[in-house]
Design brief:
The protein has eleven helices and 21 strands. By secondary structure, it is of the alpha+beta class. The chain binds flavin-adenine dinucleotide (FAD).
Length: 420
């Protein structure tokens, strides 16, 4: 066992772990003796993938309604105690990362996730934070007033405070294997763990003809419901038909958690797409206009310029209309049926992209089981932060903001205890 007793061990050198270490360093002016442990050979492996390598750091519209959790009140408090402007301020003034804001979404001014990871690393190295990479922690114990981390290579490290920042269970190749429960098995009550499930992911469907739409994109709206009527979630943006027969895109990911939940309950979720994002009446006017302008054309030709031909044929087939028929021959009821299919295209969902494809997982240690400092249960000095907790947000910087806010809550508490 190492003879050093650290003030704080942070398990996980991902987004929340790096932020907690930096904030703790800042609060204590580098006096806290910190050890970061990560199973990867470098820090921030998942962070490097965020925002397609551009790292969407946070969002001007952060609020609790953008998240799923078991304790909205605690989430609200944590987000308001350390919100997006606090995070931006920390990035700019402490870590030296210039940021830019595009439509409310913040990025490093370099648009490179590597800038964020390097800035964390340089700051922590400047302040003598110890980093142990390339070895996984197997378990943590509490003995004689200290937390002890047992690593796979047989080494053991000791600290007064312990922050678990092991992430959720997605992209396991980045080290985020949902290990919080096994690492903290000595502490975690079974009832406090919500099983990890993919949350921001694609949806798959065996609907006949859907595979032919692979590669088609449209800007619209999507919602999911157990029966195709009562929407259980809705989002708008780019909808992408994927090659494995299904739909993806940010707005699909935003509602995917609801579909996963329904499948889990044995329900048969239906994704309802509004392919143009327009209301029924506006869509009706558009089709009437096409009928007037291009009356001699086939339906699929008349709608060229709105939809690719294959999508047009797909829409017609779901409305039992022959796409080769002439548009001027469509009756008013048929035009309305087409509008219905464009505004409410029902796609039965039978699966979803698994943990290797989801950007975030739902589940984790219940938020209600940690206090406002993210300290777990009655274990003094044991904190859990980031995606290891049962909080998952929409796309758009909300998940990283949760990593920053929860890390700040724990770091402030550990920092003030280190200084007292
Ligand atoms: C492709 C992709 C794009 C994304 N883009 C964005 C985006 O632009 N904006 C946004 O807000 N969110 C985005 N996210 C989500 C965001 O990356 C996560 O919410 C965030 O990284 C969670 O931070 P974390 O610190 O809790 O966990 P992680 O970043 O997953 O870090 C956990 C760390 O713990 C280590 N670890 C785990 N168990 C052990 C163990 N037993 N021993 C040692 N080390 C261990 C892992 O190696 C890992 O480095 C994206 C996710 C993905 C997959």
């Amino acid at each position: 066992m190492s003879s050093v007793v650290y003030d704080c061990i942070i398990l996980g050198g991902g987004a929340s772990g790096l932020f907690a270490a930096s904030m703790l360093t800042n609060i204590t002016s580098g006096k806290a003796n910190i050890l970061i442990i990560d199973g990867n050979d470098r820090c921030g492996k998942k962070l490097a993938m965020t925002g397609s390598g551009r790292c969407n750091l946070t969002n001007r519209n952060v609020s609790a309604d953008k998240y799923n959790t078991d304790c909205t009140e605690r989430l609200e408090r944590c987000l308001s105690a350390f919100g997006y402007s606090d995070a931006v301020n920390f990035f700019e003034n402490v870590l030296g990362i210039e940021t830019v804001c595009d439509d409310g979404l913040f990025y490093p001014a370099t648009y490179r996730a590597a800038t964020v990871i390097d800035s964390f690393r340089f700051y922590l190295e400047d302040n003598n934070c110890v980093m142990k990479f390339g070895v996984k922690c197997e378990t943590v114990s509490f003995k004689n007033g200290f937390y002890e981390a047992y690593l796979k290579d047989g080494s053991v490290y000791k600290s007064k405070y312990f922050i678990c920042a092991t992430g959720g269970h997605t992209y396991p190749s980045t080290g985020s294997t949902g290990s919080v429960n096994s690492v903290l098995k000595e502490f975690i009550r079974r009832d406090d763990l919500v099983p990890f499930k993919p949350a921001l992911t694609s949806l798959t469907s065996k609907m006949p003809g859907i595979k032919a739409l692979a590669g088609i994109r449209c800007r619209g709206k999507v919602s999911v419901s157990p029966d195709g009527t009562n929407a259980a979630g809705s989002s708008e943006g780019e909808i992408i038909f994927s090659k494995d027969g299904g739909i993806s895109g940010i707005c699909v990911m935003d509602v995917s958690g609801k579909a996963v939940e329904m499948l889990d309950k044995g329900q048969k979720p239906v994704a309802v797409l509004n392919l143009l994002g327009k209301g029924f009446d506006e869509t009706y006017m558009l089709l009437e206009d096409r009928k007037t302008k291009f009356g001699q054309r086939s339906i699929s030709s008349a709608l060229t310029g709105i939809f690719p031909r294959v999508l047009c044929e797909f829409i017609c087939r779901t409305s039992n209309i022959d796409p080769a028929g002439t548009i001027k021959d469509l009756s008013d009821d048929e035009i309305k049926d087409l509008c219905g299919a464009i505004c409410n295209l029902k796609i039965p969902v039978d699966g979803f992209g698994g943990t290797d494809k989801a950007q975030v997982s739902s589940g984790g240690i219940k938020l209600i089981s940690v206090n406002e400092h993210m300290q777990y249960g009655s274990f003094d000095g044991l904190f859990i932060i980031g995606e290891a907790l049962n909080v998952d947000g929409r796309c758009g910087g909300f998940n990283l903001q949760w990593a920053w806010s929860s890390a700040a809550a724990a770091a402030k508490e550990v920092g003030s205890r280190c200084l007292s």
